[in-house]
Amino acid sequence: MTLQQLRYATMVAQTGTITEAAKKLYITQPSLTNAIHDLEKEMNIVIFNRTNKGITLSKEGEDFLGYARQVLEQADILEDKYKNGTGGKKQFCISTQHYSFAVNAFVDLIKEYGQDEYDFSIRETQTYEIIEDVARMRSEIGILFFNDFNEVVLTKILKSYDLEFHQLFVAKPHVFISRKHPLAENKVITNEELQSYPYLSFEQGEHNSFYFSEEIFSETERKKNIRVRDRATLFNLLIGLNGYTVCSGVIDKKLNGKDIISVPLADEGDMRIGYITHKKEMLSHLAQTYLTAIKKYLS
């Protein structure tokens, strides 16, 4: 077993395909396939299940790669210390719901650790994809929220993937609206006051369930609903249509613009925002630094 084989296996798990992994590793597909086969044979395990539809990470493969990532992290630390401080290209990936503090912390991480070469990724994506990314070890960290409505369902899903939730902070639900919105002067806004305005939310694809929503589920019926995929579109519609969305209340003028404000929403439960990790994986130094940066924006 070599470090190279471990890097090959983790890249296949991260990309989900031999083809994409070979491209990123700058080797041929047959070479990568043979390396994975040799590793499995030597360790007497099946890391990847092969089917006509492609490959998937096996249960014992998830466990094995959890340990492999720890080995690779320690190897990177050694390289950082003894290879003239270069350490090679650093890699790090997170998946998150659409939170400005997650982006700001990512910027801080790159400013601190961005050397001449690095390969960092931040995926603002759908809730179920966040869970899958961490489960398949494409991302070290996934950021999402729990509340009384979704906690039982999401906890069950996380448990089935050997994932665990770590709370960062508790937020009171707020409404994001345009500074020129008719309700902008309100100290608090109720669901009843919002009924005549378009409700904007992030669509969740095949898993467009209330349990996977990024926004607080409300028993109050919303007559006008618009679903979008990206942050810029949502904010443009907030301004152009006097729409609104429900969020944590953490707002950043540099990312969200000066025309968007946050107003407390009445009569809704708390949002417990946190991050998920794989139980079998030890967080890297980059991940720990990223979490420290996040907490700075929440203090």
TrEMBL record:
One Pfam family recorded for the sequence: HTH_1
Record key words, sorted: DNA-binding, Transcription, Transcription regulation
PROSITE patterns per UniProt: HTH_LYSR
UniProt KW Magnesium keyword: no
A molecular function (GO) term: DNA binding
Residues of the HTH lysR-type domain: 1-58
Cellular component GO terms held in the UniProt record: protein-DNA complex
CDD domains assigned: PBP2_LTTR_substrate
InterPro entries documented for this protein: LysR_HTH_N, LysR_subst-bd, WH-like_DNA-bd_sf, WH_DNA-bd_sf
SUPFAM superfamilies given in the database record: Periplasmic binding protein-like II, Winged helix' DNA-binding domain
UniProt key word Transcription regulation: yes
Family note: Belongs to the LysR transcriptional regulatory family.
PANTHER family xrefs: HCA OPERON TRANSCRIPTIONAL ACTIVATOR HCAR, TRANSCRIPTIONAL DUAL REGULATOR HCAR-RELATED
Protein name: LysR family transcriptional regulator
Organism: Wujia chipingensis
